[in-house]
TrEMBL record, chain A:
Gene3D superfamilies: MetI-like (1.10.3720.10)
InterPro entries linked: CysW_permease, MetI-like, MetI-like_sf, Sulph_transpt2
Predominant cellular place of this UniProt entry's protein: membrane
Transport as UniProt keyword: yes
Entry coiled-coil feature ranges: none
Record key words, sorted: Membrane, Sulfate transport, Transmembrane, Transmembrane helix, Transport
Function of the protein: Part of the ABC transporter complex CysAWTP (TC 3.A.1.6.1) involved in sulfate/thiosulfate import. Probably responsible for the translocation of the substrate across the membrane.
Protein name from the UniProt record: Sulfate ABC transporter permease subunit CysW
TM region positions: 31-54, 74-99, 119-139, 151-170, 254-280
Topological relation to the membrane, as annotated: Multi-pass membrane protein
Complexes and interactors: The complex is composed of two ATP-binding proteins (CysA), two transmembrane proteins (CysT and CysW) and a solute-binding protein (CysP).
TrEMBL record, chain B:
Keyword Transferase appears in the UniProt entry: no
Organism: Alishewanella longhuensis
Domain ABC transporter: 3-237
Keyword Nucleus: no
UniProt lineage: Bacteria, Pseudomonadati, Pseudomonadota, Gammaproteobacteria, Alteromonadales
Protein name: Sulfate/thiosulfate import ATP-binding protein CysA 2
Gene3D superfamilies linked: P-loop containing nucleotide triphosphate hydrolases (3.40.50.300)
Residues in coiled coil: none
Length: 291, 354
């Protein structure tokens, strides 16, 4: 009996793959197609950026990114990130909370509206805000009467990037919070915890990884946003040029090395983002395995 | 802590969850809210806890109106069907939670909290799990931890929402006996929701049977089982056979069989329904006066008992019977044989029943 039990699984294991697996050539064709595609459209362009940036040596690269206009662009981009990312995180948590834990009229509408920024072309987004806040726009006369500048200034940039990255955190958190339900929060409340303590000790730890993931994605998109920013910023050098805009200016002026140098910086930031994202995914997966 | 529920109503959209419910629960009692799903039992429990707000009506704890009090101030211990343990905290952090979130003024010292957590884990016999995470425990263990967590804040009452509903049969049976003993030890006023009549009969001091947002009957397990107030309670508290009956002046006739129905002495002749439980029917292998002649359609042996499905010869009505195996063996009957049956105890309700 015991020898039977031992030999049977071995037999099954040997005969199983034939029944379920595709032929080897299918597998290798697919792998080759995927790898070729990745090389052509990801690895190659990335290498070109790095090659272009460092072609004339590290000194030229360093000069290109420490040039005043480049520094201003980097500073502006980071400044925008510092404002946009926390605001989006807060908004994302708020809307995910509302959708996952409350019942109200218009909930389905809200869920579909939240994806709008992804669907609308960035150029259109830029135009919307120019029409709203521009000097010829609806709110233009009132704004100029109160000496508030939004379009062709930093507030405009922040607004369009905020709009464009709005869904990232919320989309990440809504399914997560819906799946978790509200029992743990209710348990916390019955144990005497206030609403704030419940959020801090129960809700936030439960959504931590989803939140970080959403923030990382939001961050990546906010750095690279081009179309909408190009329209509302007015492209004032050293003032309203973010990094992507600055790269375009350099490129249009045939300063390829400088353009590549700033590009390499942006690419570097993107790579860091991807590493963080993978790490978060890895941690999250491990947490699910133990759970 | 006594609980008093006065004229409580609750609707969800068009669905009436609670329809003018009145109930008083005495201090130290273990009460079961028993009913099918949708009967409003969980809603009532959540309204007592403050997790749900009644549309109208009053809730009192010890005669004090707490209808508008927030759940975090009611001092109730609540146990959820799916445990609702904090996944990211260890077992001891879970149990300590209610104490650690207290405002500084009322919070015990770290050493006191640790001591209390240890005592509670001993009480639920899970001291060795202190440093584990909930995901590493079985369902039954998780529910005991959830109970320890609820007890940590010394609640005025314990409310349990289908506490054993997600567990398998054996763990369920163990855990409910354990809950009964625990209640005998600590005597905190407890209300638990269940749709399992056996669980309610076994554990509770008192059973409140609910249906469609109303209370059908309220009494000790014996009262509710032996004297069901209406057909619904009768059917809900165990399997039952239904027979058409004619009721007249304290007598009911079921076919040729006459049974006394002293509660209807003054009634005109009218239709009724006779309820007979499967284990309250005698089976004979020889003709008996008044007995119903039947054919044994199906004989199933379930452990120590025998379940019979028999067909009445007169109208082919299907009747369920349950007997101890030994008793049935002595009759020397087998599937397909003819037999005679007599109900030992019959309860007749007027009208067409439910």
């Amino acid at each position: 009996m015991s020898s039977l039990a031992q030999t049977q699984p071995a037999l099954a294991a040997a005969s199983l793959p034939k029944a379920t697996a595709e032929p080897a050539w299918v597998k290798w064709t697919l792998v080759t197609v995927a790898l070729t595609f990745l090389t052509l459209f990801l690895v190659l362009p990335l290498s070109v950026v790095l090659y272009g940036a460092f072609e004339l040596g590290v000194k030229v690269w360093w000069d290109a990114i420490t040039e005043p206009d480049a520094l201003a662009a980097i500073r502006l981009t980071l400044f925008v990130l510092v404002i946009v990312v926390p605001l989006n995180a807060i908004f994302g948590i708020a809307i995910a909370w509302a959708i996952a834990k409350f019942e109200f009229k218009g909930k389905t509408l809200l869920i579909s509206i939240i994806d709008m920024p992804f669907a609308i072309s960035p150029v259109v987004v830029g135009l919307i805000f120019v029409i709203l806040f521009g000097s010829q726009g609806w709110l233009g006369p009132w704004l100029s009467a109160h000496d508030i500048k939004i379009v062709f200034a930093v507030p405009g940039i922040i607004i369009v990037i905020l709009f464009g990255t709005l869904p990232f955190v919320a989309r990440e958190l809504i399914p997560l919070m819906q799946q978790q339900g509200k029992e743990e929060e209710e348990a916390s409340l019955t144990l005497g915890a206030s609403g704030w303590k419940t959020f801090w000790y129960v809700t936030l730890p439960n959504i931590k990884w989803g939140l970080i993931y959403g923030v990382v994605l939001c961050n990546a998109r906010a750095m690279g946003e081009f179309g909408a920013v190009a329209i509302v910023s007015g492209r004032i050098r050293g003032e309203t040029n973010t990094m992507p805009l600055h790269i375009e200016v350099l490129y249009n002026e045939y300063m390829f090395t400088a353009a590549f140098a700033v590009s390499s910086l942006l690419t570097g930031l993107a790579l860091v983002t991807i590493v963080i994202k993978s790490w978060v995914e890895y941690k999250d997966e491990r947490r699910h395995k133990t759970a | 802590m006594s609980i008093s529920i006065e004229q409580v109503n609750k609707r969800f959209g068009n669905f009436v969850a609670l329809d003018n419910v009145n109930l008083a629960i005495k201090t130290g009692e273990l009460t079961a809210l028993l009913g099918p799903s949708g009967s409003g039992k969980t809603t009532l429990l959540r309204i007592i806890a403050g997790l749900e707000q009644a549309d109208s009506g009053i809730i009192r704890f010890n005669n004090e109106d707490i209808t508008g009090q927030h759940v975090s101030e009611r001092g109730v211990g609540f146990v959820f069907q799916h445990y609702a343990l904090f996944k990211h905290m260890t077992v001891s952090e879970n149990v300590a939670y209610g104490l650690t979130v207290k405002p500084k003024k009322f919070r015990p010292s770290k050493a006191e909290i640790a001591k209390k957590v240890n005592n509670l884990l001993e009480l639920v016999q899970l001291g060795w799990t202190a440093d584990r995470y909930p995901s590493q425990l079985s369902g039954g263990q998780r529910q005991r931890i959830a109970l320890a967590r609820a007890l940590a804040v010394e609640p005025k009452m314990l409310l349990l929402d289908e506490p054993f509903g997600a567990l398998d049969a054996k763990v369920r049976a163990e855990l409910r006996r354990w809950l009964r003993r625990l209640h005998d030890e600590i005597h905190v006023t407890s209300v638990f929701v269940t749709h399992d009549q056996e669980e309610a009969l076994e554990v509770a001091d008192r059973i409140v049977v609910m249906n469609k947002g109303r209370i059908e009957q309220d009494g000790t397990p014996e009262q509710v089982y032996d004297n069901p107030a209406n057909p619904f309670v009768y059917e809900f508290l165990g399997n039952v056979n239904l027979f058409h009956a004619r009721v007249k002046q304290g007598q009911s006739s079921i076919g040729d069989l006459q049974v006394p129905s002293p509660e209807y002495t003054n009634s005109e002749e009218q239709d009724g329904l006779a309820y007979v439980r499967p284990h309250e029917i005698d089976v004979f292998n020889l003709p008996q006066p008044d007995a119903i002649k039947v054919k044994l359609d199906l004989v199933t042996i379930v452990g120590p008992a025998v379940r019979l499905e028999v067909l009445a010869e007169s109208d082919q009505q299907l009747i369920h019977i349950e007997q101890p195996k030994e008793q049935f063996k002595q009759l020397n009957l087998k599937q397909g044989d003819t037999a005679w049956i007599l109900p030992r105890y019959t309860k007749v309700f007027l009208g067409e029943g439910i």
